[in-house]
Design goal:
about 325 residues, alpha/beta, TIM Barrel, eight-stranded parallel β-barrel, two-stranded antiparallel sheet, MbnB/TglH/ChrH, Xyl_isomerase-like_sf
Amino acid sequence: MSPSRQTSQEPTQPRLGFDNLGLGVGLRAPHFGYLLEHWPTVDWFEIISENYIDSQGRPRYVLDQIAERYPVVMHGVSLSIGSTDPLDYDYLGKLKKLSGEIGACWISDHVCWTGVNGKNTHDLLPIPYNEETVQHVATRVRAVQDFLGQPLVLEDPSSYVTFADSNMTEWEFLTALTQETGCGLLLDVNNVYVSSVNHDFDPVEYIENIPWQNVVQFHLAGHTNMGDYCIDTHDGHVIDPVWQLYKLAHQRTGGVSTLLEWDANIPDFPTMHAEVLKARKLIQGESIASESGDAPADRSGVVVPHPAHHIDHEVG
């Protein structure tokens, strides 16, 4: 049995040629069995690209089954668009091949660098925000877009350090990058909140100054409050302040594809899907209450998860 293709949101005009897919969730290995048995009505799925590049066996079988029935978006963590290393055309070729095979709606990654001199740090590292970096990243974005034959979609990162060389805000940098390249933006609303706490800026000012015409997707997620800073852990429910930022972002765009990320302490599929469906209630003016607060966690001595650490969990 195939699921319905009806979306949870009213359709809006495509941005950069990318449709509003509705409310989606990440495709995660713990849910494979449930999905193959129930084929739930879900608007769309997002995959972590690296989990399926060069991957066969059960993960690829499930992905192919999903791609036959649902829209799929590819979200990567290895493009390293901010690095000074040459672009990895072998990796880009694999992205393009997988995208063609599964009919991916678009390909996204992060405004960050992940390594240098051929060494991968397995983390999403921030870049300085200044004109020199704009030009460096824009040159690489244009090259990637030419290779892929479509606009690249880039996500604002969560970050924990800033640079003395930065003389732009993050939203000013993203605006300049979109003006230089025409690329799309994946606005991770939770990342805006996390970075606003870590760097003491106003998240509402950030949201209100994003170039909305280039935003094609939102991310929602939970995070971990460490007391005087936050970590983007994707391990729980979305908190109320993030929902309120999402509501503002939705108003600014008129609605774009929205996806919930939940990558650690992953609940059963109905629980995860129910979390993203709260967005529909919020959009319709209903009140929603977060199922978790933002009290500081007792994490002393415990390593908390980070999104870039989940690449290998689904392969096998």
